[in-house]
Amino acid sequence: MRPSTFISFCLSIATIPNAYSQSTTDPTKRAELALSALQIWYNAGTGLWNTCGWWNSANVLTMIGNFAKRDSNPQLQDLAKRIFANTIVQAPANNPQPGVEDESTSKRDVQGSGYNKSISQDGEYVTEFPENWAASSAYVDVKDLPFMKAGQDGTPVSAAAVPQASAWLDGFYDDDLWWALGWIGAYDVTKNMEYLQLAEGIFMAVTKAWPTGCGNGGIWWSWEKNYANAIANELFLSTAAHLANRAENKDFYVDWAQKELQWFLSSGMINDRGTINDGLNDDCKNNNQTTWSYNQGVILGGLVELNRAAPDPSHLQLASRIAKAAIAELSDDKGVIHDKCGPYCGGDASQFKGIFARNLQLLHEAAPDDAYVKCIQANADSIWANDRDDGNRLSIDWAGPFIAPANASTHSSAMDALVAAITVK
């Protein structure tokens, strides 16, 4: 039996001399080296990446999909397809809070699940997982799963039906929509309709969170319906717009995206500097909490996709204003992006900067601008020069120095910037 694709990919990368790894300026080679390092955390038994959270793994999946769209390396293409095929089967069993969005589930049952997301006094997101959750599970190599044995044509052998959308819901609508976007990315690479249909099912489930108590629109952050924040609503916009360009019922998704955008623009979450605060207070006013990098990013991808589905000059104009305001506000004097919590951000915020880089690249594809090129290249170059150890693992502070230990969240977030640099070289 031939070696697993992961082993083949890593062996091919490992033959590159370390001196080359240190000096290479080729964006694609940098990302390939980083991908080889990332896969030490992929647990085929759970379908997730050890050392990071449930929604973080959705973002790792998205990053790999974006990389596969931009690098035709056959081993990378095969690896990405195997990861998609394995994760869709294995991951639902590790949903940290399944069934919470079922109306028959009692609030007491949910509160005893051990999974919770909250905001600390300093405005940072904090996620608590059940004891012995998947992130600490024993490692299982992909080659040891019967499901991943290759057929005669070298593709994975399917061993189970695709899970229903309900298996991916955990009561936090941002989590749900991160997975929807991840499966849309997998569809883009494979054209497997099951991935697209799963994303549609997740989105439809989240529409039940509309409207909030503010302006008769928008979606809540969670099943508790006690906070309307930017990230959940930006993800709702972006998912609807992505689906409008891929699913059959285009008008249905365009309508949702436009309705969300109209509500978001009237919500007050965009401040007078042009950046986006975290959410709304109990009086439905901008709460002036942190302008996280990912809140400046997700909306860019959503506006790009909406403009593609329903062209309107205002979409890309708005995206440009937000992107440039964010670059000005979040960059240091060398152009490197930082979040307020840096460099010691927790497991949630350590993912944020890569999401901004990923979506800034999408905006640049739609509306090229030297400011975006400069930002992406400055961050990718700094990561490679200053935020990388001898094993090509990438940490939290993109300006450096490397802070040990790196994990799947810090590494995949930095990889988003490396992948973005591939198309702006």
CATH topology: Glycosyltransferase
Radius of gyration: 20 Å
How many discrete structural domains? 1
Per CATH, the class reads Mainly Alpha
Total number of strands: 4
Shape: globular
The helical percent reads: 40-55%
**SS-based class:** mainly alpha
| Cα distance spanning the termini | 39 Å
- The poorly predicted ranges are 1-5
The number of helical runs is 15
The share of residues in extended strands comes to under 5%
Q: What is the average of the pLDDT values?
A: 91
Widest beta sheet: strand line-up: 1-2
Order of helices and strands: HHHEEHHHEEHHHHHHHHH
CATH architecture: Alpha/alpha barrel
Specify the biggest β-sheet.
2 strands, antiparallel
Structure at a glance:
One of its GO terms (biological process) is carbohydrate metabolic process. The chain is mainly alpha-helical and 425 residues long.
